[in-house]
Amino acid sequence: MLIAVDIGNTNIVLGFLEGGRTVGTYRISTQANHTSDEYGLMILQFLQFSTFRPDDVEDVIVASVVPKVMYSFTSSIIKFLHLEPLVVGPGIRTGMNIRIDDPRTLGADCLADCAGAYAAYGGRCLVVDMGTATTYNYVDAHATITCGLISTGIRTAAAALAGSTAQLPEVQIERPRSILAKDTRKAIQAGLYYDFLGGIERIITQFRREIHEDFRVVATGGLSRVLETPLIDVVDPDLIFKGMAAIYELNR
């Protein structure tokens, strides 16, 4: 079994992969002050819950955008699983060409998302990852990442709204039944949802205007299943794990 780990700004998500198939996923909050022992115990508990043993783990691959967490987390893999994890970053093969001004600035999560989209759905696709930030990356028919865009994530917008006002509460992000809200919480939920949805649709439309070829839109991330729009062709919550599995196969 391969463990794929996506270390994001808000959550660390672990995927247990067998034969390229995700057989279990677990999510913990990203905390810089967690020790390697704490991370290691969580991983062992997740394995036990999924009826796996530490000896069942063949390897671990990590994609991280939070450098300050990496030492503790990778140390936990070495200490508890006795494996040196493969880290997505400079010096490993990904199967992707990066044609942006500074390839080093492309996040490991975006790179893994693009590798997963290309492996699963082929070239000419716009990959939309809805996380703490919402990222858009275009992959052409030759596995080349040619451009990208970054915007605010909907949860980030919700937290900013609650934190910058005296009387507006934080709300759970969900699909509203109607835009005709009757109370403050529903008004915030509907406002966030339709504002975010409208932004995504406008960005996708602009990509189609400026890229003179047809492409598929592939969405992933925690909120990709909440948004409803015909402009998104595929919703794949496991996209980053598919990308890390493809990268692992190139480097094993």
UniProtKB/TrEMBL annotation:
<keyword id="KW-0630">Potassium</keyword>
<dbReference type="GO" id="GO:0005737">
    <property type="term" value="C:cytoplasm"/>
</dbReference>
<comment type="pathway">
    <text>Cofactor biosynthesis; coenzyme A biosynthesis; CoA from (R)-pantothenate: step 1/5.</text>
</comment>
<dbReference type="Pfam" id="PF03309">
    <property type="entry name" value="Pan_kinase"/>
</dbReference>
<feature type="active site" description="Proton acceptor">
    <location>
        <position position="109"/>
    </location>
</feature>
<protein>
    <recommendedName>
        <fullName>Type III pantothenate kinase</fullName>
        <ecNumber>2.7.1.33</ecNumber>
    </recommendedName>
</protein>
<comment type="similarity">
    <text>Belongs to the type III pantothenate kinase family.</text>
</comment>
<feature type="binding site">
    <location>
        <position position="184"/>
    </location>
    <ligand>
        <name>substrate</name>
    </ligand>
</feature>
<dbReference type="GO" id="GO:0015937">
    <property type="term" value="P:coenzyme A biosynthetic process"/>
</dbReference>
<keyword id="KW-0547">Nucleotide-binding</keyword>
<keyword id="KW-0418">Kinase</keyword>
<keyword id="KW-0067">ATP-binding</keyword>
<comment type="function">
    <text>Catalyzes the phosphorylation of pantothenate (Pan), the first step in CoA biosynthesis.</text>
</comment>
<feature type="binding site">
    <location>
        <begin position="6"/>
        <end position="13"/>
    </location>
    <ligand>
        <name>ATP</name>
    </ligand>
</feature>
<dbReference type="InterPro" id="IPR043129">
    <property type="entry name" value="ATPase_NBD"/>
</dbReference>
<keyword id="KW-0808">Transferase</keyword>
<dbReference type="GO" id="GO:0046872">
    <property type="term" value="F:metal ion binding"/>
</dbReference>
<dbReference type="GO" id="GO:0004594">
    <property type="term" value="F:pantothenate kinase activity"/>
</dbReference>
<keyword id="KW-0479">Metal-binding</keyword>
<feature type="binding site">
    <location>
        <position position="129"/>
    </location>
    <ligand>
        <name>K(+)</name>
    </ligand>
</feature>
<dbReference type="GO" id="GO:0005524">
    <property type="term" value="F:ATP binding"/>
</dbReference>
<keyword id="KW-0963">Cytoplasm</keyword>
<feature type="binding site">
    <location>
        <begin position="107"/>
        <end position="110"/>
    </location>
    <ligand>
        <name>substrate</name>
    </ligand>
</feature>
<dbReference type="InterPro" id="IPR004619">
    <property type="entry name" value="Type_III_PanK"/>
</dbReference>
<keyword id="KW-0173">Coenzyme A biosynthesis</keyword>
<feature type="binding site">
    <location>
        <position position="132"/>
    </location>
    <ligand>
        <name>ATP</name>
    </ligand>
</feature>
<comment type="subunit">
    <text>Homodimer.</text>
</comment>
